[in-house]
Amino acid sequence: MNKRVFSLTLLFACLAFVTTQAEGRKVEPFNSGWSFRKAPAEKELAVNVRKWDSGWSEVEIPHTWNAQDMQVEADNFYEGAAYYRKQYFFPAELKDKRVFLRFEGVASCAEVFVNGVLATTHKGGYSAFACEIGPLLKAGEENEIIVKADNQSRPDVIPVNHNLFGVYGGIYRPVWLIVTEPYNICVTDCASPGVYVTQKNVSKKQADVKVKVKLDNGTLQPAAVTLQNTIYDRDGKQVAADTQSFELTAQGEQAFESSFTIKKPTLWQGRENPYLYKVVSRLIKDGKVIDEMVQPLGLRKYEIVAGKGFYLNGEKYPMYGVTRHQDWWGLGSALKNENHDFDLATIMDLGATTVRFAHYQQSDYLYSRCDSLGLIIWAEIPFVNRVTGEEAENCRNQLREMIRQSFNHPSIYVWGLHNEVYQPHQYTKELTQSLHDLAKTEDPDRYTVSVNGYGHMEHPVNLVADIQGMNRYFGWYEKKIQDIKPWVENLEKEYPHQKLMLTEYGADANLDHQTEYLGDALNWTKEFYPEAFQTKTHEYQWSVIASHPYIIASYLWNTFDFCAPLWVRGGVPARNMKGLVTFDRKVKKDSYFWYKANWSKDPVLYLTQRRNWDREKKETSITVYSNIGTPKVYLNGKELGGIREGYTRVHYIIDHVTLEMGKNIVKTVVVKDGKTYEDEIEWMYSGEKKRDSDQSVNKEEHAGF
């Protein structure tokens, strides 16, 4: 991690500390001291839990019960109900306070009980939820908290199956205990911060900012209070403030607004300058701050111009896009902040500027880090893969939760509505339209996007969002690698006014599978997934994307290998291997360095095919990625001639290279600004051989699974 990234990490950590130590409210982690057990067959009703004396194990939150079984064998994992139990001593001095629990993620459906009484339920494994538990607690005594978590697929809760990715069961994100005074900034407004910061007319001259705060009076009497909203710059200097006093009426939520005009603001300029202001909302009673919330403010203007590109604050901005699933090998979805930081550091190192967090709402910590790193991000709900006709209410509720919980993150530019959902077409179209309308009601200032796997614009479920996303896997699931070019050129000609994004593309790569014999397509239904085919796919297809601004943004699939629990593909069970990095995060594939060379400002000099060390051909080719100038290439100490440029300015190839019998050392060197860069690999040649892959072409259109 470079010094700048480290400084931003430290800054965010300090901001997070301020937020959790907000004056007037007490926020504590509620993650230790839990016991866990799966529900006995046919005795899963919560009423029986308190009678189960055996079978419990001690766990720390975040926790999932699928970290192993879902990842190692196809279609053989525990899917169903399990319980978490915790004893909590409620101090007598908190009797007159309000007490809440906030769960960042419980998969997939949750029920929360306090002392045997149901406190709340929640449907959806990726959004947070909060509930007030104070009235159910016994002051000065031990109290029992029980949470039922159930990741059984069901038709009324999205995602409705485990087909494209696994919904890991458990309380897999942190839990927080929140204690406030009877009057507070709302905790239970879809588990949002209760503060909504909007911005208009953003330019280098000025920016108009509005801060809306939802207040909650938990008593039966009105109260005289003061609301103070203050904006601070990065150095802690006050930029603007507004104070208003009023009588907070009894019982229920009320919203109050403050408006500001900031002159000559420092703009949030993506990775170049992710400048963050800070909005502090304070609720004051009798001269004392009784509640406080701190939210980020990045002043920016996003604009998409069909056929031309993406603009940030009036300047064209490169959208070098990746996608990310949240699970890790051996951990599942039960991640800690350091896991999120590792993934973000990898994405930053790659040179990406935008991330599609697919196919579900991810950790709020992750979104906050993107604010401070300058990554422009896409957040979406898990309406994916299948339509049942029963999911409409849950789709709308999960979208509402995601928008309210993530509203203040300046890094988010678009809300994703669906991915590869089709029949019945009319139902899906109308549901997507309602999601678009809901998003625009909740947040009129951001874009919406829907994604399909068809390659034609006129599909019935298209064109009900601001942006049309298309997933295209040319050469892998259909046709040939090179067919991406006529595809985009035809759309460009026929539909020049559409805002199009290429939202998934790529190919799998099993690092144990290596060959020099490659065609322009691969039969993915066979077991052999050579790394070189993934590399070839990305080399050509990125060159086409880069030369077609009609593709507003592209998102390669995927940064990391991830779990696909119902599949056996490429000889590996429960795995999607389209990542640029292996599931355990230990090995970066050749394709990783292809994008780093094309996107990053860091120097890259890299020889491909280093894992294909047992060569099949005596006469072969050598490929080098270099963004620091034309490399010199040596074979067994002898400099080779005939180097040519490939698909982009960082792509260099030497054809017709003749290997010696036995060990061969390939070395490349570039001297730039007085510094020498080198890379070296070793190949063995012992005679002609062929590890042949099935290169048959699927001529049928592929639109998902």
Helix count, per DSSP? 9
Uncertain spans? 1-21
| Outline | globular
* Arrangement of strands in the largest sheet: 26-27-28-29-30-31-32-33
| Protein structure class | alpha+beta
Q: Note the beta-strand portion.
A: 35-45%
Helix content: 10-25%
The average pLDDT score comes to 94
Keywords:
six-stranded antiparallel sheet, 9 helices, single chain, disordered N terminus, 705 residues, alpha+beta, 16% helix, 44 strands, eight-stranded parallel barrel
Explained architecture:
The protein is of the alpha+beta class. 16% of the residues lie in helices and 36% in strands. It contains 9 helices and 44 strands. It has an 8-stranded parallel barrel. A 6-stranded antiparallel β-sheet has the order 3-2-4-10-7-8, with no helix packed on it. Strands 37-44-43-39-40 form a 5-stranded mixed β-sheet, with no helix packed on it. β23 (302-305) and β24 form a beta hairpin. α8 (531-546) packs parallel to α9 (590-599). The model is unreliable at 1-21 (pLDDT under 50).
Summarize the SSE layout with pairings.
Blueprint: H1 3-20, E1 26-29, E2 34-38, E3 57-59, H2 69-72, E4 81-90, E5 98-103, E6 106-107, E7 109-114, E8 117-123, E9 129-132, E10 141-150, E11 170-171, E12 175-180, E13 183-185, E14 195-200, E15 206-217, E16 223-232, E17 238-248, E18 252-263, E19 268-269, E20 273-274, E21 277-285, E22 288-297, E23 302-305, E24 309-312, E25 315-316, E26 320-324, H3 337-350, E27 354-357, H4 364-373, E28 376-380, H5 392-406, E29 412-419, H6 425-442, E30 447-452, E31 467-471, H7 484-494, E32 500-504, H8 531-546, E33 551-556, E34 568-569, E35 572-573, H9 590-599, E36 605-607, E37 614-615, E38 619-626, E39 632-635, E40 638-639, E41 644-645, E42 651-658, E43 662-672, E44 675-685
Parallel strand pairs: 26-27, 26-33, 27-28, 28-29, 29-30, 30-31, 31-32, 32-33, 37-44
Antiparallel strand pairs: 1-12, 2-3, 2-4, 4-10, 5-9, 5-12, 6-11, 7-8, 7-10, 13-15, 14-15, 15-18, 16-17, 16-21, 19-20, 21-22, 23-24, 24-25, 34-35, 36-38, 38-42, 39-40, 39-43, 41-42, 43-44
Helix pairs in contact: 1-4, 3-4, 5-6, 8-9
